[in-house]
Amino acid sequence: MSTPGLSIALSRLTKVGSENFAIWVIQAPLTSAYLHEDCTWSDDLTQKWLAWQQMFSLQSELHLPIPEVGKPNLEMPALEVQGYSSRLMQDLGIALWQWLFNGSIQVSFAQSRGLALGQNQPLRLRLDIRDPNLIPLPWEIMQPEVGKQSVSLNQQLLFSRTTTDVDPLTPGAAREQLKILLVLGHNDAIAGEPMLELKLQDEAETLTRILAHPSALGLQSERRLSPPPQVDRLLKPTPAELIAALEVGDYNVFFYAGHGVPAPDGGLLFLGASETINGTELAQVLVRTRVTLAVFNACWGAQPDLAGSRAIARSSLAEVLIHHGVPAVLAMRDEIADREALSFIETLTEALAQRMPVDLAVAVARQHLLTLYKFNQPAWTLPILYMHPEFEGELLEPLDRGITELPTLQPDSLKGTQPVALLRSVEERSRVWPLRGGLMRVGRRQENDLVIPEQWVSQHHAEIICRETGFQPDSAKQYFLRDFSRYGTLVSGTGGWQRVHHQEIALYSGVQLKFGSLQGQALEFAIEMPN
User: Fold this and answer.
1) Is the separation of the CB atoms in 255 and 183 below 8 Å?
2) How do beta strands 20-27 and 36-40 pair?
C-alpha cells in the first residue's frame, strides 16, 4: 500500500502586501483535505527567527524573511541563562508550526494524519516553499507543542521539502544494492572565501570505510540488510572525469564531500584547485545517469544565493537538482562540523542499507545526531532533504515487492467457470492484461503489473483490486480503482471523462480509463468468461 501523502505549498501574496502569504494543500489522501488559508507573517516570528540565528547560525549577516521590512529591535537574554538555547529552539519550532498549520490547514493535516493512522501507515508530509526568502528558515524544527517531537524527527510524519515546478521523474527501478560514487573535492583554502580546511585524503578513507560497512551502529530493525554497498572513489576529479565516472558506473547514490558556496546557478562545488562545477551542470548528468539520491557534505548546499537582502529563486544546489528531476537531494543548510557529518552519514547509510525509504532514513539519522549532540545544538537541524513530488522514497527494493493478493479459489478450479477481469487496449483490442491474484498495479515503474511509459503516468499510479461481497466461494466479486498518482486517473462516464485523484471508485465492465492525461492511451476494463 502506498504511503499517504500531504503536500503543502506556501507563497507570498505580493499584490496584497509583503507580509501576506497563502498556504494551501496541493496533495492529500482525501478530497476534503484540499484546503486553503491566508495568513500574515508577524513581527514576533521575525523576532524569534533573528534570535535563533544569533544563537545558532554561523553566517555573519542575519537573514530577514521579509527584506522590505526593517529589522525589529532584538533584545536577547544573557546567554548564560540556564536552558535559554533549548527554549529558543523550541519557541521558534512551535511558532513556525502554529503559523503553517493554522485554521483550515490544521484541519487538513488532522484528516490526513487520521487516515494514515487508520491504515497503520506514516504520513508523508512535504513542504513546497515558493517564496525564496522563506527557504533559509529551519522548517525542520517545527513542533506542535511542548513535549512533542519536531516534525523532521517523527518517524510517523516523514518530512521533506519539495516543489511542483519540476521536470518529470526519469523512470528507474529500485535496486538491490547501494552503489555509491564518493567524490572528494578540493581541500585547500580558497582566497577570499571563509571555508573550512578539510583533510580530504584522511576523510576519503574514513568515508569509504563508513559507506562500505554501514552496519557498525547496529540499528534495531526488522528490515533485512541489502548486500554490502559498493563504493567507488574519485579524488579531486575534473568535471570530465566526474561525468565519465557517472556515465559508466550505474550508481544510485552520488556523494560529494568538499567545499561549496552559494551561487545563482545552484551553487559551486570545488572539485580541484581550479576545477568547479555548478548545480545546473551537475543536474544534467545526475538525471541522465539516473542517480536516485544525491548527498552533499558541503556547506550551504541547501541555502539560496542572495542578491542584496533578497534570496534568488531556485538558486540553492538542492533546489536546482530537484527542479531538474533528481528524485532526492540531501544538503546542509549551514556549516556542519566533520564529526557531526560523519555521525549523520554513518547512520544514514546503515538505514538505507536496511531498505528504509529515503525520508525515513534521514529521520533516523537526524535522531542519532540529536542523541549525540543534544536538542539545543544545531547539528540535527542542518541536513535538509528535498524529494521530487513523484518519488516515494524507495532507493532499494522493498522486501514485500511483488506480493499480491491470492485468489480465493485455486487456478485449476477456475478454468472455464469463472469470469476474468482484464484491461484491454481500445485501439489494439488484441493487447490484453488480465488481473491476476486480485490485484493489478499500474504505473511507469518496471515492477508494476501494467507498465505505461508515458510522462504523465506516475511511478506507482494506481491499483485495481478485487473484493468479494460475501464469505462463500461463489460470492460475487467487485472491482475497484485506487488512485495514488500526481495527475489522477480519467474514467469515462455519461458526462464524458471524469478525473479521479487519490480516491477509490468502483469499476464496471465496459468503463474506459486513461492514466494521467487525456492524451494517454485509452484502456477498457472488462469482465469476461474465459474461452
Assistant:
1) yes
2) antiparallel
In sequence order, what are the beta bridge partners of 184?
Answer: 235, 257
Q: Which of 142, 174, 135 is nearest to 320 (CA)?
A: 135
Q: What is the CA radius of gyration of the chain?
A: 25
Helix, strand, or coil (residue 395): coil
Grid coordinates representing 505 are 471508485
332-384, pLDDT tens digit by residue? 998 888 889 888 998 999 899 888 999 999 999 999 999 999 888 899 999 99
Asked whether the beta carbons of 25 and 108 are under 8 A apart, the reply is yes
Q: pLDDT of 96-123, one tens digit each? A: 999 999 999 999 999 999 988 888 899 9
The angle at the Cα of 176, spanning 172 to 178, to the nearest 5 degrees, equals: 85
- Which of 453, 510, 517, 462 is CA-nearest to residue 485? 462
Residue 74 has pLDDT above 50, yes or no: yes
Cell readout for 381 is 537541524
Tell whether the model's pLDDT for residue 18 goes beyond 90.
no
- Reported as half-sphere exposure (CB side, CA atoms, 13 A), residue 33 has a value of 26
- State residue 226's pLDDT score: 66
Which set of grid coordinates corresponds to residue 39? 495568513
Q: What's the predicted TM-score (pTM) here? A: 0.76
Dihedral in degrees, nearest 10, Cα atoms 183, 184, 186, 188: 170
Q: C-alpha distances in angstroms, 248 versus 245, 251, 286, 295, 481?
A: 6, 9, 12, 19, 40
Output 338 or 35, whichever has higher pLDDT: 35
- Answer whether 195's CB lies under 8 Å from 261's CB: yes
Q: Which of 163, 22, 1, 37 is nearest to 109 (CA)?
A: 37
Burial of 139 per CB tally in 10 Å (0-12, 13-18, 19+): buried
